[in-house]
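Entry 14. Ran structure prediction on the chain below.
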Amino acid sequence: MTALDDPHPVAPPAAGAPLLAGRSVALVHEWFGATGGSENVFLAIADLVPHARRIVLWADRDVEVDRLGLRETWLARTPLRRSKALALPLMPLAWRTVGDDRYDVVISSSHAFAHTVRLGSPERTRHLSYVHAPARYVWSPDFDGRGSGALLSGPRRALQAVDVRLSRHVHAYAANSREVQARIRRFWKRDAVVIHPPVDVDFFGRADVSRAPRDYLLGVGRWIPYKNFDLMIEVAAEAGMPLTIAGSGPEEDRLRRAAAAVRVPVTFEVRPTRERLRELYAGARALLFPAHEDFGIIPVEAQACGTPVIGLDSGGLLETVVDGETGFLVGSMRPADHAAAVRRLGPLSETRIREHSTTFSQQRFAARMSEWIAHESR
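Output, C-alpha cells:
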C-alpha cells in the first residue's frame, strides 16, 4: 500500500517544518540538461527537501553546477558525457561507485539507471524512486528510434537483467503517469503510485488571449524523429492552415526542406524564450502532438493557455487531454485524420481547457510528493 492509497495517509509536514528534517538525504538524477521536464521535477523535489545532497551523472556545460549545488559522478570527467548511448552500459557502474557516503533516505529521479544507486544498506536506508520512464533505450526502443540501433541491440538484454537485479533494494516507486506505472509493473514486476509531474500552469495561464489570432497550428518540442514534426507539416498542409514549429534539434535541416515542399506557410521559432512560447501557445488554433510520450508537459502548458491539443490516443495524452473537451485524440498517423480533428475544434470551451490544466499544477505535485515521501520514508 502506498501513501496515496492509504485510507489514513501521513499528513505532509506542517508549514515551516522541513520535510525529512534531521535525516540525511540524497537526491540523485541522470544527466542534467539546462532545460528539460525531468530536470524540473528533480529541482521541484529538491525544493521540498532543501538540505539534501544533489547528485547527477553529469551536467551539460551551460548548467550552473555550483549555483544548483550539483555533485557530478566520475562519468562527468570522461568523453562519454558527450554520448548518452555510449555511456549507457556504464551508468549502473557509475551509480554503484558514486561514493562511500551513506544516507538515511535516498530519492532518485530516474529515466535510465538512477534507481539502481546504492548509498546505504536496505536495512538502514529508505530508497524511494520517482520514475519518468524505465530506460527507453533499454526497454522501449520501439517508442524512440534512437535506441533501436545496432550499437545497443546486443547489450540490451544484459542491461535489462542488470536493471532489474540492481534495483531490488528500492522500497517504493512513484511513476509520472499511468503509462509509466504500467511499464514498471511489466518490466520490473513492481507496483508504483502515480504522481503527475509539476507544470507551471500559473505562468502559462497568464497568457493574454484577448487578442490571440488563433489562426495557425503549432508544434513544440525537440526536433528529433519520434516527435513526428514531419507529420505535423503534412497535417497543416491537409488542413490548409499555417504552421509554426518551435524548438530546436538535429532534424532542423530536414524539416525545413519538408516545409518548403508544402503550400502552407511554415515558420520556425528556434529556442523561443518561455515568454515567447507562451505567446505562441496563446495564438495557436491548436497544438499538434502526434507522439507517444510517457507524460508530456507541453500539451498541459498549451491547455493552460486555453489552447486545445490534437494528438495520438496513446501514452500520456490519455491522461492529459480529455478527448472531445480539451482536444481530440486520433487513433492513426494519417495526416487526413489529424486534419479532420482540426476542423472539429469549434465547439471546445477555452475556459474548460484552462480549468483542466490546473489538475497538473506545481502546488498539487508538491502536496502529493510530500505526502508520498513522508509516508514511504518512515
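Residues 1-14 have pLDDT under 50 and may be disordered. Will compare against last week's run tomorrow.
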